[in-house]
Amino acid sequence: MAAPKSCALWSYCGRGWSRAMRGCQLLGLRSSWPGAPLSARLLSQEKRATKTHFGFETVPEEEKGGKVYQVFESVAKKYDVMNDMMSLGIHRVWKDLLLWKMRPLPGTQLLDVAGGTGDIAFRFLNYVQSQHQSKQKRQLRAQQNLSWEEIAKKYQNEEDSLGGSRVVVCDINKEMLKVGKQKALAQGYRAGLAWVLGDAEELPFDDDKFDIYTIAFGIRNVTHIDQALQEAHRVLKPGGRFLCLEFSQVNNPLISRLYDLYSFQVIPVLGEVIAGDWKSYQYLVESIRRFPSQEEFKEMIEDAGFHKVTYESLTSGIVAIHSGFKL
Ligand SMILES: COc1cc(O)cc(C/C=C(\C)CC/C=C(\C)CC/C=C(\C)CC/C=C(\C)CC/C=C(\C)CC/C=C(\C)CC/C=C(\C)CC/C=C(\C)CC/C=C(\C)CCC=C(C)C)c1O
Ligand SMILES: C[S@@+](CC[C@H](N)C(=O)[O-])C[C@H]1O[C@@H](n2cnc3c(N)ncnc32)[C@H](O)[C@@H]1O
Q1: Which helix (H) or strand (E) holds 270?
Q2: What is residue 32's three-state secondary structure?
Q3: pLDDT tens digit string along 4-56?
Q4: What is the DSSP letter of 56?
Q5: Cβ neighbour number for residue 302 with a 10 Å cutoff
Q6: Element (H, E) at 296
Q7: Which residues pair with 51 in a beta bridge?
Q8: Please, how many CA atoms are within 13 Å of residue 192, restricted to the half-sphere of its CB?
Q9: Binding residues for S-adenosyl-L-methionine, per the UniProt record (predicted)?
């Protein structure tokens, strides 16, 4: 597996450090190389010693990104079928609920980070298209004197059918995006949709670009969650909304016992049987247990500068949707 080029960038913690590293990269330098300035080498050694978690494993920070990349490269082709099997289709309801919470207005510019195979983007396009069609129907009913040609013209323009709304799917993994693009082609999604390879911790977009930022089942995999949240804040327009759908903490002790049983005894077995990949699904359930609780995550979102942060737990807290605004 070839880790993405931006792998070296995973070994930073703050923005300044990231920029310095990027500068070194552009100059073809690495801070660990003997030719690099002493201060950069010392910082690099310090960073190398910083540990994080990959599921229940403790790993050096700079290794986590590569490991996560491998997981999703490995599961990409079976990803959608696995989700339906493991969740008995419930993940579809959770994703629909995210859209209902979002209620995008005509002309919404959405960025779906860690968008993978496009589930959120396709739901968004369906939603805005049906909203726009209803609006057009209402307008047509009000303009009874239009000719048939004029009516047909209104329905023909594909770009127009979305009322100016657009979605950009951004994901770090080429294989996940490849599967997503194939799905889009097969299901006839073309207009208003773009696919971008990029890291949630260092988004390849200008400041104040998007009305809504979504991340579904993605942020748990990011090495520096605080950095990803700051990036979300940066790319949103003032007034823009952050929405995150992620596994969370089950508070009912009985459900929690059943959930643990299902997670640890069933999910990796399904992973092995269906996708031939026990390890990736073991990582999935372990990473869920490592993720902060609803309240802790809410605080992290507030720390990144978001206001009016709220959350809603779904299915007894198996997942939660967090929402916040950039003011
Ligand atoms: C590598 O990384 C990943 C790979 C991926 O493919 C996906 C993701 C990201 C995840 C998504 C996009 C979401 C979709 C994927 C999942 C939901 C899989 C993860 C699943 C869990 C962590 C477990 C929770 C699942 C659910 C609540 C869905 C519903 C499932 C059931 C109700 C289980 C029913 C199954 C059986 C009855 C089969 C027999 C099971 C046993 C013998 C074991 C014992 C099990 C039980 C007694 C029942 C299980 C009970 C629960 C799960 C709790 C029920 C809770 C309530 C009803 C509130 C990715 O990062
Ligand atoms: C469980 S999938 C979620 C896909 C999709 N959002 C969904 O709900 O089905 C997690 C995705 O996060 C992506 N990912 C992991 N780390 C990332 C990062 N640092 N930046 C962008 N995407 C990342 C993975 O490549 C993968 O496609």
Answers
A1: helix 267-275
A2: coil
A3: 433 322 222 333 334 333 333 333 333 333 344 444 444 455 555 699 999 99
A4: T
A5: 14
A6: helix 294-303
A7: 60
A8: 27
A9: 117, 171, 199-200
CB proximity list for 312: less than 8 A, separation 6 or greater: 101, 320, 321
**287 Cα: distance to centroid of ligand 1 (angstroms):** 14
79 φ/ψ sector (left φ>0, alpha ψ -120 to 50, else beta) = alpha
pTM score, whole prediction: 0.85
For ligand 1, mutation pick of 68, 82, 87, 260 (most atoms within 8 Å of CB): 87
For residue 95, give the ligand 2 atom closest to its CA.
Answer: 8
Please tell me the distance from the alpha carbon of residue 266 to that of residue 138, in angstroms, as a whole number.
Answer: 50
ipTM: 0.87
List all residues 6 or more positions away from 316 whose beta carbon is below 8 Å from its beta carbon: 250, 251, 252, 255
Known binding residue 117? Answer is yes
> Which atom of ligand 2 is least distant from the CA of 223?
19
Rounded Cα distance between 14 and 232, Å, is 15
Ligand nearest to the CA of 283: 1
Q: Tell me, in angstroms, the distance from the centre of ligand 1 to residue 93's CA.
A: 13
| Domains parsed from the chain with CATH numbers | 51-141+161-326 (3.40.50.150)
| Nearest to 90, CA basis, from 303, 225, 272, 259 | 259
Q: Which residue has the tokens 């190389």?
A: 33
DSSP 94-115: HHHHHHHHH-PPTT-EEEEET-
For the CA of 74, the nearest ligand: 1
pLDDT in tens, 183-215: 999 999 999 999 999 999 999 999 999 999 999
Which residue, among 113, 305, 312, 123, has the nearest Cα to 220 in the 3D structure? 113
Residue 320 Cα, ligand 1 centroid: separation in angstroms?
A: 15
User: Is 208 within any annotated ligand binding site?
Assistant: no
